[in-house]
Amino acid sequence: MVDMRQSFFELVLNAMMRMIAGKRYYGETDADSEEAKRFREIQVETFTLSNTPNLGDFIPIMKWIGPKRTEKRLTELHMKRDGFMQNLIEEHRKTLAIDDSSETQGRKKNMIEVLLSLQKTEPEYYKDEMIRALMLVLLLAGTDSSVNTMEWALSLLLNHPKALQKAQAEIDNIMGQNRLINESYLAHLPYIRGIISETLRMYPPGPLLMPHESSQDCTVGGYWVPGGTMLFVNLWAMQNDPKTWVDPGEFKPERFGSCEGMRDGFRFMPFGTGRRGCPGEGLAMSIVGLALGSLIQCFEWEKIGEEMVDMKERSGLNFTKDQPLYAKCRLRPSMVKVISEI
Ligand code: HEM
């Protein structure tokens, strides 16, 4: 029996840190260093705090009368995180001073190395502060959202075993039994992409998008909106509106089959849209697609009991499953050879 939320977190954080710094902080061989422990502590605190909305951000009067505790904890956490990131930058700076040729050693540069190289040619723009900010963006905006999507998707599949079978058959058909799924095959797996889109339609990680602000007075749908107003878009309502979706409460991955994206009329936009739309959409679709695809390809999945997986969500600004998903899995005999060769 596996705690899927924890496993998805570890997977996504490892993937992000490998991109950022070429390091893994979770897993049997990488978990023991002091650095890894510190990173994990910071992440636990980050996700605890990110599930505690700061009312003062949304109800201005609370800024003056409300408790300042969350803000204080956020500031302290930020200092800790910044210190950790700066140490990573210094470590890479030292290594690059000795040898700036990681690419010639047969590996690609990680994000810190790329940004430190750019710092040499454009020091005014690529300051350490900018590098730390970019590292944080990947960790903060990219982790929770991807983990939530994976957890909801697998929960839906456990409650819909026929869809799970169909997904497995699609992968077996395209990949055979001697190759593990990789990024380049995702384009050939429409049903898997349909599962991810349908999950993002029913359980969008940002159900109200990010708060936006009107830059000037305007009228929208007959409503006058003064400039400087904080605006939320009720994305969940749009993506589950019975006027524009057939059986919106039903999980039907095939509805995305013929009409990729279905962005027309803004019916479906789990990554937002326009200038402030999510810049991580491509990365997110790859990470979620690969994780889900490999799990479906390599294992048989089952609920832990007879009853359906509980799909209740936790109240808050992001769409998190209330209870973490636990699931039973068994390696598929046909995949033993491929897995043993990894
Ligand atoms: C399934 C995964 C993801 C979903 C559903 C998602 C969704 C969103 C949404 C709805 C927004 C707000 C858009 C708006 O208000 O118009 C957003 C913003 C953003 N996302 Fe994502 N995201 C995901 C993964 C990622 C990843 C992997 C990264 C980076 C590596 C990322 C980076 C960002 C950033 C930086 C913003 C702010 C953009 C801005 O304000 O200009 N996201 N995302």
TrEMBL record:
Heme binds at residue 278. Its cofactor is heme. GO terms for molecular function: heme binding; iron ion binding; monooxygenase activity; oxidoreductase activity, acting on paired donors, with incorporation or reduction of molecular oxygen. Pfam families: p450. SUPFAM superfamilies: Cytochrome P450. It comes from the Eukaryota. PROSITE patterns: CYTOCHROME_P450. The keyword Heme applies. Keywords: Heme, Iron, Metal-binding, Monooxygenase, Oxidoreductase. InterPro entries: Cyt_P450, Cyt_P450_CS, Cyt_P450_E_grp-I, Cyt_P450_sf, Plant_Cytochrome_P450_Monoox. Belongs to the cytochrome P450 family. This is Cytochrome P450. It comes from Hevea brasiliensis (Para rubber tree). The lineage of its organism: Eukaryota, Viridiplantae, Streptophyta, Embryophyta, Tracheophyta.
